[in-house]
Amino acid sequence: LSAGEVLKNLNKFYKRKEIQRLGAENGLDARLFHQAFISFRKYIMESSSVSADLHIILNDICCGAGKLCLLGHVDDLFPFFLRHAKQIFPMLDCMDDLRKISDLRLPPNWYPDARAIQRKIIFHAGPTNSGKTYHAIQRFLSAKSGIYCGPLKLLAHEIFQKSNNANVPCDLVTGEERVYANEDARQAPHIACTIEMCSTNTPYEVAVIDEIQMIRDPARGWAWTRALLGLCAEEIHVCGEAAAIDLVTELMYTTGEEVEVRNYKRLTPLTVLDYALESLDNLRPGDCIVCFSKNDIYSVSRQVEARGLECAVIYGSLPPGTKLEQAKKFNDPDDPCKILVATDAIGMGLNLCIKRIIFNSIVKPTINEKGEKEIDSITTSQALQIAGRAGRYGSSFKQGEVTTMHRDDLVQLKEILGEPVRPVKAAGLHPTPEQIEMFAYHLPDATLSNLIDIFVSLSQVDGLYFVCNIDDFKFLADMIQHIPLNLRSRYVFCTAPLNRKEPFVCTTLLKFARQFSRNEPLTFDWLCRHTKWPLAAPKNIKELVHLEAVHDVFDLYLWLSYRFMDMFPDAVLVRDIQKKLDDIIQVGVCNITKLIRASQSAAAPGTAEVMSNDFPLSRTKRDTRAVSDRHGARSTEALSIAVEVPGERRAKNLKPYRSATRQEDLKSHGRGSLANRLLREGLLTQEMLRQLESEWQDQRRNGRYGLGSKRNDQNGSKETGKKKK
């Protein structure tokens, strides 16, 4: 057969509308049809021989009596094409079954126990510090039985303590911890838990779902959807932003349940100041500087203490005990620590006596629905959540204030706070283990990562829902794919709550899975050898970061111990050393400026390795770009491209990044909007700018041109200026 004739007729086959329609009827959408055809064409063109029946068909098409015969027979390739497509896409044979399994259009039907009772839904809507959660908790405490579902371990722990202090026996249930109110470990009628851990089978009189607006969270939203639709309680008290009222009402309409809305106003006034801080010299007791990167935390805390002021430090990766200890230190009126430097981790879960919130920056890294990193201005919801921490009701400050570190951020912050909060449009969903097991029954040779991909591609949701981002799940599935585990165990390992940007934690999970697959228990001694316990207090930032990772490893062990008790038998011993590690980390955080100084003096490359695992560049709202995440090799907590820990000389000359003289300095350096933006975002300092200019001048004198050329220089001065810029 002529290869050219075969290729020409294969392409005609591909373009025929009738063939595309037949493909769609057999489960091949446009994407699958194209992929299947590419593979089919490659098979025919590159094979040394094909089956006799396919050869006869190709021969009839290529050597037919005439064009009419040729056109009539090109469709005869379809049975061979479909057979080949089913070899590379096995799910085509059971497409109808798979579509039924992945049909997510009626989530309320997944919870028959909840549908069997008529629930009363009460929405407590209001801003931060409005008393909405307080009223819901009062009803929780007065009920015969109840469950509190919160987004953080700290919040669950707070309700657990408050309930038991009020003589209402309450158990604490988180992914890593079970604490019983009764000494004989009998289950108490009240439970405070993280929302992922709530039971949809146990009946309660009252349930409280806190921070309901997180139902739209791209990664965790499914947990709020599950709680809202599935909790088997006579009363469901939902607390959160008013932006979620419409969605909750619509979701409850599909279950036949009405929503009673109770609106609350802020209990203390909150004022947006007309002036920025501009210099750390203007700090006052009760100030909290909010940063969105660890680098900024390190830098600002160093600058604060260089002024002789003591500060507390709180950021997301700190253990809960350390966060509470730092909050206690800041709140204590007798403690000399009167300044707090924190990330948006203070937005929920901690009670803090803050007078003034100061935004060090208003750009923040986020993960969008596609799992891509973006750096954008904070949303109105985020700004209100953080700003609302100032002037907490019942604290020593009867009114709150909010401003920015830099003058030109203040205008934008006022715009953000003045905008209405965007309504919550959809609720998250996530495939269940049972659904994945049914997929695996039909596709026994597919990997777990492929099963998830196929599930998401075939899933159908209506406009009230979306499928949550599963990149973290797939990352872990690919990482442990080579380890022989049964599907249910593999699924559990892939849902482990870990930060995939921490190599030490990911490596440990891999070792856990490998040891588990050999049916060898992971003992306390094994864990101590792996983590090199006991550990000493950190001498620099790199060691502090490692201790935080070890704490996450202990959390991971405890989380797995409640799912595989026989294979992770030493939870009690691990919890004991985790408390000791928490104390060690607290010492490190209390001495954080000393650690920064030690890191700086040790070696710049080593410091950069610890502190610059971050985003390429900060971007304003007008310059937002998605940044793809190659398996989370970089940290999401930092925004700067270089170490921002200031030297002693810079510490003495601490000017704000965006001082009033900045524009004049820019003009004198002949730089335009790019330099202006980098300076404004704190990615470039005047010293760095002068050094860059000096290096550029040296290169020019030596005949090495970066962006320009000799020919460029011969153009007009205006054009040359643009090239240089």
TrEMBL record:
GO molecular function annotation: ATP binding; hydrolase activity; RNA helicase activity
PROSITE patterns: HELICASE_CTER
Main localization (coarse): mitochondrion
Annotated source species: Fulmarus glacialis
Protein name: ATP-dependent RNA helicase SUPV3L1, mitochondrial
Catalysed reaction equations from the record: ATP + H2O = ADP + phosphate + H(+)
GO BP terms, alphabetized: mitochondrial RNA 3'-end processing
Cellular compartments annotated: Mitochondrion
Co-factor requirement: Mn(2+); Mg(2+)
Domain Helicase C-terminal stretches: 272-437
Region span, Disordered: 650-673, 695-725
